[in-house]
């Protein structure tokens, strides 16, 4: 934190796709705090650390947090919200860091406005401080490479090509040329695919960029089988082939293709980092 110039660092309980249910690899707040409940926000200062969670987890949090942590019983009388506590403790001039991939755009903008009004700065953490100190030798689960599989059209009701066609019609009706799909359930539905990345869900980690003339799916190559590749490109001469790109390079690739594509629609519930790829 000191090297990055942060006076406070926020660790939320969601992943890059704003999923509250996530892979073990993405449980950053659990790693840093020791609290294993599904809901909570950790805030770390140079000499203080606090965790907010709701009434479902008060007893669990008391048992799992060690003496380095203050338990903030969210929604109880007199308990400030994380941003209010940061403002109270730091005061004007403080720098607050958070990974822009882990906050929805609308949440980021609300937080930025509030902190700026009180004289604090919200800074983008391009690397993620938790990732910098948490690795596989320290017990971090590796990224899933479980294969994705086809969800048959007899269950989906329509092929993925028809869904993309309908999506493009909606984009056209809104005067847009493309969109970025970030929610994992939406990607699984759109391409008639399922996966096993997240326990108790049929989802897999991926991004997609769809415009009037291209379809890109960002996914780790080891997750793909020949059957899935053929499903996504049944005819090499067909313009409706999905271009497969490595998930690791999603942001770098989208940063190049999005400015060339005209008007892009992106949900405000997508991460600030994704929305920030779209030129104003």
From TrEMBL:
<dbReference type="InterPro" id="IPR000587">
    <property type="entry name" value="Creatinase_N"/>
</dbReference>
<protein>
    <submittedName>
        <fullName>Putative Xaa-Pro aminopeptidase P</fullName>
    </submittedName>
</protein>
<feature type="domain" description="Creatinase N-terminal">
    <location>
        <begin position="1"/>
        <end position="131"/>
    </location>
</feature>
<dbReference type="Pfam" id="PF01321">
    <property type="entry name" value="Creatinase_N"/>
</dbReference>
<comment type="similarity">
    <text>Belongs to the peptidase M24B family.</text>
</comment>
<dbReference type="Pfam" id="PF16189">
    <property type="entry name" value="Creatinase_N_2"/>
</dbReference>
<dbReference type="GO" id="GO:0046872">
    <property type="term" value="F:metal ion binding"/>
</dbReference>
<keyword id="KW-0645">Protease</keyword>
<keyword id="KW-0378">Hydrolase</keyword>
<dbReference type="InterPro" id="IPR029149">
    <property type="entry name" value="Creatin/AminoP/Spt16_N"/>
</dbReference>
<keyword id="KW-0031">Aminopeptidase</keyword>
<dbReference type="InterPro" id="IPR050422">
    <property type="entry name" value="X-Pro_aminopeptidase_P"/>
</dbReference>
<dbReference type="GO" id="GO:0004177">
    <property type="term" value="F:aminopeptidase activity"/>
</dbReference>
<keyword id="KW-0479">Metal-binding</keyword>
């Amino acid at each position: 934190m000191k090297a990055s110039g942060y006076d406070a660092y926020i660790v939320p309980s969601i992943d890059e796709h704003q999923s509250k249910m996530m892979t073990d690899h993405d449980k950053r707040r659990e790693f840093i705090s020791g609290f294993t409940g599904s809901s909570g926000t950790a805030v770390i200062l140079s000499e203080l650390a606090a965790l907010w969670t709701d009434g479902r987890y008060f007893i669990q949090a008391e048992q799992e947090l060690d003496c380095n942590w203050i338990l903030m019983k969210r929604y109880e009388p007199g308990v400030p919200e994380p941003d209010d506590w940061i403002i109270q403790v730091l005061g004007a001039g403080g720098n607050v860091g958070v990974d822009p991939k882990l906050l929805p755009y609308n949440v980021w903008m609300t937080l930025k406005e509030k902190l700026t009004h009180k004289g604090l700065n919200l800074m983008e953490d391009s690397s993620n401080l938790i990732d910098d100190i948490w690795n596989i030798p320290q017990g971090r689960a590796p990224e899933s490479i479980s294969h994705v599989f086809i969800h048959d059209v007899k269950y989906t009701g329509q092929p993925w090509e028809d869904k993309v066609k309908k999506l493009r019609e909606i984009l056209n009706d809104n005067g847009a040329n493309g969109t970025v799909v970030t929610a994992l359930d939406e990607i699984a539905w759109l391409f008639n695919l399922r996966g096993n990345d997240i326990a108790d869900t049929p989802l897999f980690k991926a991004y997609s960029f769809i415009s009037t003339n291209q379809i890109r799916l960002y996914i780790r190559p080891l997750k793909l089988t020949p059957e899935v590749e053929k499903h996504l490109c049944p005819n090499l001469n067909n313009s409706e082939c999905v271009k497969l790109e490595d998930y690791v390079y999603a942001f770098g690739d989208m940063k190049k293709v999005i400015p060339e594509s005209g008007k892009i629609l992106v949900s405000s519930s997508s991460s600030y980092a994704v929305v920030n790829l779209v030129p104003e």
